[in-house]
Amino acid sequence: MRQDERLCKSGFWYLQQRVLGIKFTRRIKQVPADISNTPILIMSKLFISYRRSDSEEVTGRIYYHLRKRYGKVFKDVDSMTHGPDIREQINLAIRTSRVMLVIIGRDWVNTQDEKGNRRLSNSEDFVRIEIEMALKAPNIIIIPVLVSRANMPPKQDLPLSLEKLIYFHASFVRPDPDFNNDLQKLISRIDPYLRFQWIRRLKSVSLKWLVVGALLVFSFILSLIELIPKEKSLVEQYEDIVQQGLNVHAAWIPIHNTFKLGDYGLFTDGVFQKLGNIKDDFGVSFFEIAGEGASLSFVSDKVTVVNNGKTADNVRLDVFKDNATYKFLNAKSFLVHAPVINTFAIENIDQVAYQVKQLEGWKNEFNVVYRVYTAQSPLIISTIQNGTEVTLSQEKSTLKKPNIKNVPTKYIVKSNKELGLSLTGNSGIIALEVFKLNWLTERVEIQ
């Protein structure tokens, strides 16, 4: 690197960090030795994994828009070069990517080959290989993208090597007229990882002042945008509820996860994305202790309950009324009731943090789960349309025991409109507390 290039790059860093207050995490990646053989892959920071027979058309639309925004995007044979083995190219593309989109359509799980065998069950299936490689890569953000109104596949339908995929927060890209709106939401998740990549490619000193001016204008625009209130997503609203009620982070998606003490990862859009476990991956030992119990009961504004023909605005969840109907005036409303929450925690946080600090390759932005909140028979419902009516009743086995604080309760939910989230009685982890090392002092910082 020439001296003038070094001065230019250091000038960008000073402007971003000191003048504009924009902070970038410095990441040190080991560049594969064979990277020079396939230079076309170096520029791909976004990897799209999809199955042609399942979602070729919608993937093409998504690819078109993402390529216009981010430049080079890796997408199967369109991004391959002649010569190197296909597996090597895929592996290299994944190791040099920052984000992987896993496009999942209605037939993604059960697509068959010419012999009638399920492709996903074949260890040689390229879609399976791509995801397996990404799950093993430490620095790639994985975002499942559900298209054609598909649902996230259940754990039992996936090979053992792909089971972790269900714990990543998925985005939806529905057909028109919702396509553009859903795509913008997906882009808002990708932007934090890719939108500044173009700055690092600039090498001409003659462009320095142009970039400086652009950054100043961009910073001013950002300051104006921050003044405009944004409508919060269901995930963000649920995170707010748990933060207010328990002063901890929500474990999305509630209940259906396998978080445990010692898990480490990053927060993306308020969602904790697990990367691994400090005990399993690094051999860091710790002691587990049971903590104090907790409870959480919350109903959004503008919710009424109708019971025996009587309407009440004061919704109480501590006394369950069988066959009561809850009327949600607004979309994106929540009903959350978890009267019994058990907690388990790491006892020796300081000792654990000291061990973590000694780990080679550990990043200070990693968060470590040191306390988990397990809800017993919770009731969690969210709405996605105005005027949603939800009728709740108990299963016959628990109907004669209305004290849900002491009896495992399962509910029957009936709704006049589609619900966003409906969890009725299964016990599981509802919230997390995490810590990370302060980048300046390297001391424990409770999040």
Alpha-beta classification = alpha+beta
What Rg, in angstroms, do the CA atoms define? 24 Å
Helix content: 25-40%
Number of structural units classed as domains: 2
Q: What count of helical segments does DSSP give?
A: 11
Number of strand elements: 21
Shape: globular
- Low-confidence blocks of residues: 1-43, 197-206, 399-408
Overall pLDDT confidence: 74
**Major sheet:** 11 strands, antiparallel
How many angstroms separate the termini?
40 Å
- Percent of residues in β-strands: 25-35%
Explain this structure to me?
The protein has 447 residues and is of the alpha+beta class. The chain has two domains: 170 residues, Toll/interleukin-1 receptor homology (TIR) domain (Rossmann fold); 213 residues, no CATH class. Helices cover 28% and strands 26% of the residues. The chain contains eleven helices and 21 strands. Strands 6, 7, 8, 9, 10, 14, 15, 16, 19, 20 and 21 form an eleven-stranded antiparallel sheet that branches. A five-stranded parallel sheet has the order 2-1-3-4-5, with helices on both faces. Strands 12-11-13-17-18 form a five-stranded antiparallel sheet. Helix 3 runs parallel beside helix 4. It starts with a helix and ends with a strand. The N terminus is likely disordered.
